[in-house]
Amino acid sequence: MLLSSNTQTEVKGELSNPNVKSYKRWLYQLYKSKTGTLGLIIVFCIIMTAILAPLLSPHDPTQTYTSKILTPPIWNEDGSAEHILGTDNLGRDVLSRIIYGTRISLLVGLFSVFVAGIIGIIIGLIAGYYGGLIDKILMRLVDSFLSIPNILFIIVILTVFTPGVLTLIFVIGATTWVQYARIIRGEVLSIRERDYVKAAKSIGVKTHLILMKHIIPNVFSTFIVIATLNVATTIILEASLSFLGIGIQPPDISWGMMLNDGRDYLATSWWLATFPGIAITVTVLGIIFLGDWLRDVLDPKFYNEK
């Protein structure tokens, strides 16, 4: 619904008031950003799909229908209304598997980023705040992680441990924290030199209180932006590992595993790989759109230019 010119003027006037609540400012900027709105809608739909998977799924995703193997989508000449997006090489409903695959993608994406973020924030805070020898040691640790290709490191670890959802979450989280550490460290190096931090030190405020009240709140917006964008990267990484057969294992369902199952049938049963690929693309784009919007609204310069 479009706002009238008078209404927009009133909203802008309200937003110019420094006492206006921040959420109103966010909602107004979200309204103005088409990509941000689209990203939020996509992410909301994906989350609701994962939560309501048992209600939305027309079939049991692991149930096989031997008489309906490789049934094409409903709009195809040989399609069936019972299986809207067709069935796979074992007769399992493709739509149901895509719906349940949403759960794995979000679970791995969100919790891997949470693990990586916690490790990265802790190391970044310590390195940036204390500096000196501690900073040098931690940054050399970061450099050693960066010297090894991330995907290669993860593959090596997954070949040692038993593949699974929890294993994948912790392995990805434990190998992707370096970006958080470097960026948070840079932010902390700048913040620790500000007057209010120096004043807190001069009056004897304890270190943990300075970090909790003055440092972390100022780096949290940066962390949120990085984390949001990295969820999309992690979803692609999980799909890639599952496609290679070292990520999610049956009976769990992954979009990457569905791509692997359908690659031998691309010439005859294109829907096996096409629909999981579309699901990955739409999800990642939605998260990226939302992340780009967050990056803008959390940047103080964004409001100063308005």
Describe the structure.
By secondary structure, this protein is an all-alpha fold. The protein has a single domain, classed as MetI-like (MetI-like fold, Orthogonal Bundle), CATH 1.10.3720.10. Helices cover 71% and strands 0% of the residues. It has helices spanning 5-15, 22-32, 34-51, 53-56, 94-130, 132-146, 150-160, 165-175, 178-191, 195-202, 207-244, 255-262, 271-297, 300-304. Helix 11 packs parallel to helix 12. The protein is elongated, with a radius of gyration of 24 Å. It starts with a helix and ends with a helix.
> Describe the biggest sheet?
none
Classification by helices and strands: mainly alpha
Report the average pLDDT across residues.
Answer: 84
| CATH architecture name | Orthogonal Bundle
Give the N-terminus to C-terminus distance in angstroms: 23 Å
Under CATH, the topology can be stated as MetI-like fold
Radius of gyration, in angstroms, nearest whole number: 24 Å
Low-pLDDT parts are: 1-21
Number of helices: 14
Beta-strand residue fraction: under 5%
Annotation, overall tally of beta strands: 0
CATH class: Mainly Alpha
Per the principal axes of the C-alpha atoms, what is the gross shape?
elongated
Number of separate structural domains:
1
Order of helices and strands: HHHHHHHHHHHHHH
Annotated CATH homologous superfamily: MetI-like
As a percent range, the share of helical residues equals over 70%
